[in-house]
Amino acid sequence: MAEERRAGDKRPETQVRIGQGPGTRREVLVKALWIGVWLIFLSSPIHDLAAGHHTTAATVAGTLGLTAFVVAYLTLVFRNMGKPFTPGVVASLLGVMAVLAPLLNFALGEAWIGLFVYVSVACGATLPLRHAYWAIPATAVVMFLTERHNGGSGWDDTLLLVVLIGFAMVGVGQLVRTTIELRKARATVAHLAANEERLRLARDLHDLLGHSLSLITLKSELAGRMLPEHPDKAAQQVADIEQVSRQALVDVREAVTGYRRPRLAAELAGTQVALTAAGVIADVPAEPDLAGVPEESESALAWALREAVTNVVRHSGADRCLVQLTHRQTLDGPVLELSVEDNGSGGVGSAPGNGLTGLTERLEKAGGSLEAGRAKHGFRLVARVPTALSGDVGSGA
Asked: Is 10 in a helix, a strand, or coil?
């Protein structure tokens, strides 16, 4: 079905996954831009240095101190959003920032008070919860005392900003840690599910082949003993062996076909993951009601969903996708309808492609039908298969 979209409509991925370090140059640039935009609070110190209010020695010392502070901040925050440093390295970099912030303020004046914002952000983003809860208020206290030392009142909007943005970064850090744990848990669940499938397949094959192979072995021994004196009886045993082996082969093929057949519930879960990973806002039903739907029909819908979602991710250029499953009553009887609609710019070609033709043949074999074409705001695919039940199973609307 991928042939129905224009191959040039691929949308580059610009999102950086939470809790993972940048893997490509584009991801590095996106993350650097996201972190660098917050360097706006350095405008006051830079302006203070450029204005010439200090001696040459003080200006050089302030420039070196500011450079060291920014390098420590960027190194700490940028690296910690991917593969975190060890606690010792984090403590060392935070120590550099915690020393330079009040030192530069004492030496160069109140224009440097914004450095405490970065100290608070770094504490909230990199420290464990129990340490961040006291480090952020401590940063605010040091900032208050520094402002009083410089002749200010100490109570201003920057003080409140230090506390709020610090605890906001605590929440962001907790979100990153939770996302990492969920990703590991999902990988573990997938691994356990694969192991369980292997065990099930092993049990089923044992049940299918154990009796057949035992019978083949027994009849082979009997045929071997009968062959010299009773060739007609031996021939009968050989015919039985052929029949048993053919039936065993049929059973194994049916079992393997059942394992290879895609399931709609699993495809829906995979759809949510695939669209989210591609930066597409996904609206997918959670638990489909498949009671009364034949396995062949369910498999055909699962193939249609897989192909449609692959097309959305690779060729549509969409940022939204709506998946709906609905039981409908038609003139030909009750059907289960799958609808996949996106807001991308890809369109249908002048002739059906191999993917669309294959899906049509698969659905027709299950007694269903396929419709695909341009919708009002993008592309829409509708697949229908017959079912014995009716009633709405829910949608993402």
From this structure: coil
CA dihedral 353, 354, 357, 359 (to 10 degrees): -120
- pLDDT tens readout for residues 31-55: 677 676 677 778 888 888 888 888 8
Whether 223 and 244 have beta carbons less than 8 Å apart is answered as no
What predicted TM-score, i.e. pTM, was given to this entire model? 0.47
- Neighbour tally for 20: CB within 10 Å: 15
d(CA 105, CA 116): 10
Summarised one tens digit per residue, pLDDT across range 287-326 is: 777 777 888 888 888 888 888 888 888 777 788 899 998 8
Alpha carbon distance, N-terminus to C-terminus of the chain: 25
Rounded Cα distance between 37 and 40, Å, is 6
Residue reference for tokens 């065990």: 199
Could you tell me whether strands 379-386 and 333-342 are parallel, antiparallel, or unpaired per DSSP bridges? antiparallel
On whether the CB atoms of residues 380 and 341 are closer than 8 A, the answer is yes
User: How far apart, in whole angstroms, are the C-alpha atoms of residue 190 and residue 199?
Assistant: 14
Check if the beta carbon of residue 18 is closer than 8 Å to that of residue 179. yes
